[in-house]
Design goal:
- There is one protein chain.
- The chain is mainly beta.
- It has one helix and 17 strands.
- It has a single domain, classed as Porin (Beta Barrel), CATH 2.40.160.40.
- The strands form three sheets. The protein has a twelve-stranded antiparallel β-barrel.
- β4 and β5 form a beta hairpin.
- It is elongated and about 60 Å long.
- The N terminus is likely disordered.
Length: 304
């Protein structure tokens, strides 16, 4: 009991501290994919199919509240191959603007080699072009439901004892149609305070994760804390008011997040999961609109 009380206190302190000072936390999608998330090392593939229904909320840049959901289907083929399809949506509200829209479709396939290694490859398909308008003017990326890019995703997971280590890469294949320049808005408008992303070009990301996956909180409960690092491989760029392509300084670099997953098995076929992401360190600028001070997710899983 003392151990679990200590965990609760640590989580509270982390959330309070990071909520007050940090930015960063989210990513372009690959960190939350099923094959690249923490997985209990004692889990057994007893079922060929899984459906996941999830909802999440968080606080983004400049007081924007983020809400979203996803539907996910996973199919096990044989003993070593799984195929996963995930569809997302996203809503944002803040600064007198409220928007909602479809996000992306993720299609991935994983191949396990023995019990310790799994390779994952896939694509992200946008369901919007990343250029939603407000009063006929382009909105910043912070109000887009998708980055609007087709992406290639590749990763490897290594399971060792009760630990899981993940490395992954996400590369935009195309760029979006965003046309936001902050000069479109008057000086007293809160929509002028975002980073311009006209003809935006976004660089690739690499991700590293370490998670400890076997802390039992009860007979049916499992707690998995972890550390997640995302490195943006270059400075993003846009075309300014003069028609020149300009790098967005300090938009490259490292973001480090703490992640906490708690799974509770309601029955053999039904699992409830809560997870939270809190940034520890973040790069200076996030023109892609993915800044999150904290994000909380609830997921219901059905296995059959």
């Amino acid at each position: 009991m003392k151990r679990y009380s200590s965990v609760t206190i640590i989580l509270y302190l982390l959330f309070s501290y990071q909520y007050a000072r940090a930015q960063g936390c989210s990513d372009a999608g690959f960190c939350s994919l099923n094959n690249l998330k923490p997985e209990p090392s004692d889990s057994v593939n007893l079922f060929k199919n899984q459906i996941r229904l999830g909802a999440f909320g968080g606080l983004g840049a400049k007081g924007i509240f983020i809400f979203g959901h996803y539907n996910e289907f996973d199919r096990l083929i044989g003993k070593h191959v799984n195929v996963n399809v995930k569809v997302t949506s996203l809503a944002q509200t803040g600064n007198e603007v409220s928007v909602i829209g479809l996000g992306d479709v993720f299609v991935t396939a994983g191949v396990r080699l023995g019990k310790q290694i799994r390779f994952t490859n896939g694509i992200k398909i946008p369901l919007s072009d990343g250029n939603r308008l407000y009063n006929d003017a382009p909105l910043p990326m912070d109000y887009q439901s998708s980055l609007g890019t087709y992406d290639f995703i590749s990763g490897i997971s290594w399971f060792w004892n009760k630990w899981q280590f993940v490395a992954a890469y996400q590369q935009p294949i195309t760029q979006n149609n965003n046309a936001y320049l902050n000069t479109f808005y008057p000086e007293d408008s809160p929509l002028r305070d975002f980073i311009s992303t006209n003809n935006y070009i976004r660089k690739a990301d690499v991700m590293f994760r370490a998670a400890y996956t076997n802390i039992r909180t009860s007979k049916r409960g499992l707690f998995s804390p972890g550390l997640l690092a995302v490195y943006h491989l270059g400075e993003d760029s846009y075309i300014n008011e003069n028609g020149s392509r300009t790098n967005i300084e300090n938009s490259d670099g490292l973001t480090v997040n703490t992640n906490f997953y708690w799974d509770y098995e309601l029955s053999e076929k039904h699992v409830f999961q809560l997870n939270a992401g809190v940034p520890v360190y973040a790069r200076n600028f996030r023109p892609d609109g993915l800044t999150r001070n904290v994000i909380l997710t609830a997921e219901f899983r059905v296995r059959f």
